[in-house]
Amino acid sequence: MLALGSIAFAAPWLLLALVSLPVLWWLLKAAPPAPRFLPFPAIRLLFGLNPTDETPDRTPWWLLLLRLLVAAFIIVALARPLLNPAEAPTARGPAVLVIDDGWSAAKNWPDRVEAMTLAIDQAERADKPVVLLTTAPARGAAPPSTEPLPAAEARRRALALQPKPWPVDRRAALDALATVSFETPANITWISDGIDNGAATEFTRRLQQLGAVTLITDSADATPVILTPARDPGPALTVLLHHLEAAAASYDITTLAQDGQLLGRQTVVAAGPTTRVEIDLPTELRNRATRLQVEAENTAAAVVLLDERFRRRPVGLASSDTPDVDQPLLGDLFYLDRALGPFTEVRRGPVADLLERQLTMLVLADIGTLTGDEAARVEDWVNSGGILVRFAGPRLTEGTDDLLPVTLRAGGRTFGGVMTWQRPAKLAQFAELSPFVGLNIPNDVEVRQQVLAEPSPELSDKIWAQLEDGTPLVTADQRGDGWLILVHTTANTAWSNLSLSGLFVDMLRRLVALGEGIGGADTATPLQPHLLLDGFGRQVAAANAATIPAAQFSDAKASAETPPGYYGTEIARQALNLGPGLPELQPIEALSGVTTASYGPTRQVDLRPWLLFAALSLFLVDFLIGLSLRGLLPTARRVAPALIAVLFTGLTALPTPVSAQTVSDLAAIDATSETRLAYVTTGDPRTDRVSAEGLTGLSIALRARTSVEPGDPVAINIASDELSFYPLIYWPMADVQPAMNDATRQRLNAYLRNGGTIFFDTLDQQFSSIGGVGPGTQRLRQLVAGLDLPPVVPVPPDHVLTKAFYLLQDFPGRWASGGLWVQRPDDRVNDGVSSVVIGSNDYAAAWATDQLSRPLYPVVPGGQRQREMATRFGINLVMYALTGNYKADQVHVPAILERLGQ
Amino acid sequence: MASTHTAGHPVQASSAEALAGTLPPLVVDAERVASAVAQGVHGRRRTGQGETFWQFRRYRWGDQPQAIDWRRSARSDRLYIRETEWEAAQSVWLWRDCSPSMQYRSANNPAKVDRADLLLLALCALLVRGGERVGLLAEHNPPTSGRAVVNRLAVSLAHERKPGAPAAASAPPTRTLPRFGTVALFGDFLAPPEETLSVVMQLASQGVVGHLLQVLDPAEASMPFRGRTRFEGLEDEGQLLVGRAEGLRQQYLDRLAEHQRALRQGVTAAGWTMATHHTNQSPESALLALYVVLSDQLTGA
What we know:
- The complex is a heterodimer.
- By secondary structure, chain A is α/β, with parallel strands linked by helices.
- In chain A, 28% of the residues lie in helices and 21% in strands.
- The longest helix of chain A is centred in the last third of the chain and has 22 residues, at 608-629.
- At the A-B interface, β3 of A face β9, β10 and α8 of B.
């Protein structure tokens, strides 16, 4: 190594080649430059001429200088110049690299990598083997390797190292070193994390026996911190921040949601080794927090993952009602959600899904009957301490299961209606034993409708709240460790304005306080790793980590086998944090005889690539000059289009996202590009043909008379095709219609619930007129047995169907006298629009026309008027399905009255 | 800096269509050059066969009675003869060299063959205005008159320069022409003088008079090249490597002057004339000089 000021040469003997430069100069000077090439017509006149000056043309001196510079750069680069060269190792033995790659190394990891590379570079130049010893245990419990490696291999391994999200184990490293001895003293570089976890002194002594030790540590203000959840969480979210006294005094703790959204940032001034931090968050945000993190600390120990234990009481809400985006105020769960949201974690969903997770309280609003499996699960959950709160409603009056505190009388009780004398009832004062005791009852709370309990001897013990007339409003019964609670009115404003009052919130608060986060977690099954933290505290997918038995989870510590992260499933996951398992932070004590250094900015720069790059650039310049001197350099004008073309080709060749369009996508686009009427294929070819013809005829009539311009009708297979594209589905009841399976019923339920309309046509009017039930009606009853159909009534005279486009009072089809049934119009579900319309007049046959609008089937009893009325009904039906209750609006009443001649 | 050579691009244009597209501009250019010259030139100013009125003259013994202009004579006691201007139409044959050496052009100058085409067509237009009959020496059609001849010639010239046409010889073709015809030859005439002069002598022996216009590129006229250069001929003459091109310049210029002198001598001996035109000079001046010379030859014959 030859040192010249701040530049040193690793292979100085190569500089001798610089001597050859004058020779090169002379050689280059002697060689004439390449001739220019010139076409010349008058060349004949040149032949045989003797030039007066024989001296050949010379290469210009500046070009020679350029070429010599290229040669000089290459020679100097081969001599490996280094800027700010590092101290060379002095000992003769191998280079030993001890690397702390535990959790705390993640901070300043690039500096550590640089220190490793530097040490390995030095070993490589000195041609010494490298021993690479990592102190953090590897997954799989393989002992640390102490095998001497060639420098290149050692560099490859060192660059592949990543900090581990668990602590170092210096004792294990000590054991690995026990059998190692070198013939000559080794150069030991300890790239440490600066933290003593118990065995640092011992470890240093052992290293010193092997050779000279250089200990590289972080500067005092760069030591990592540890964040742990508080053992005794109060009402607020509390964490403990541990740090070394010498480190920075102020930290920012950020709170993040599941999707990485920043929920809050809090600056903490650390006092003493441990600081207690209460995370100050609005209650709405607190439940969304899944991760607390010390900002600017990228270690796994600076992250606290939050799970159910840190959440507020989870409450599940379930209702048979559909979440209605148009009229949320009428929904069963709206007031519950608003009342519970501020102080609990509210979850909504089907009962079965809610019970998958831990739940304090389950609220069922107007759910009449739970299915067998659901009922069993809810009962188990209540027995183990859950609180089941049910609200009454129209469905509850229809029929109930036994998960009620009292037996209900069938039907409800209405106050203040037309046929009753009573006024709406007010609440009576709460009894002493009621959990609601002491709550203030506002004067304006009234109950208009309620369900009534069968009188029984124990009834009075079960009443927690009652009306002034003594009828129960809230009844409760203990079942196992939990409670069954029934509120005898609705959770929305349909039956009572209780839900609008502050009392409602207070009552729910008392009810939630009855329970503790119960159930859900199964203690028998081992918890699978779900999402793990890597050494930098980032969440990564779980890979080959061990499972933790649920029973031992609370005692588990983060280790190589069980890295920190989430365990369990997506729904029920538990957090394993690194911080709680770590010992107190202690800096490594510097022993005498150990050279200490810190990760600093002074580092050597290898100048070779830069010199080679400069040489290459100059060579290119020389090449261009040579071309230009010979007249071969194409002008920029000609090169530019080629360059642009190349550039453009390159740009357009960039991969563009290709969207995969499957056949089903095309079908969906086809179905939705126009409004289309749809009919269900029954399997009976004749019925299907009539359906197609009928809807075609109806579509023609719609196009001719209205602004609805439907496309061709679509035949759909009720079991497989997507239904949601079609606003109206015509479903004739043919004899051969196959029964539906559960999946189909669910699809139909979803379709009806989300605003679809199905027009059932039983085709059997001719039978019903002679009494009894026709075959189509029977078929319909069988088919819809599992569907969630509301009760139906004959079309009332003021129903929207009678005035959606034409004013109609009867609805003939091919037959004339069959009735038409719709959902009760006062049901507020689906905007009051009936999701089913049931008729029996074989409507499609009456609508059916050929392409010339000539009817295909006779109507009975007959006449052009009947056919016209059938068509008008079809138009009204489509209008009803498309525009809903728009015509129910009072705006049109005057005009309609006028037309009615009243 | 010396010229960066490229061959004349119209000739090497990729297709005959592209070439034909340049015809109207070429013809228009030729007409423009011709009209600029025509304003400075006038008719024969001699009595002769023709349509145009020239003068009245007193009747003399021996004049044909049919020649008496009775209308003029009725105004006086004398008889007057109406004389018309002499309008004897001459035949002029034109030729230009389109061998590969004519494609040469130095930077910012047109190719020699382009200039030769322009001069040829302009001369043609000028001659046609004077009522002469014009034809191409390389064609076997008889010379014709009328304005359409300019276009016809332009097409013929373009056809010769069409890509794929056989490389033309650099010497004019020898052909039997009627006596008292006139010939105008355009070219660089860089071949040995004997080759050119043999053709001239052959034509002159038939009683044909003519004119040679040597069209040269400025680079050929001055040889401005420097440095180590490899020259290559355009008609397979071979290559020549020169250590310092500037060392050859004076010798080259001397030899070029000698070449031109030999040509001029031979041409004058045949009773012809010769001029030199450089492509960086204006075509009008060359055309005017050429036309004056030809007019003298036409009228003096």
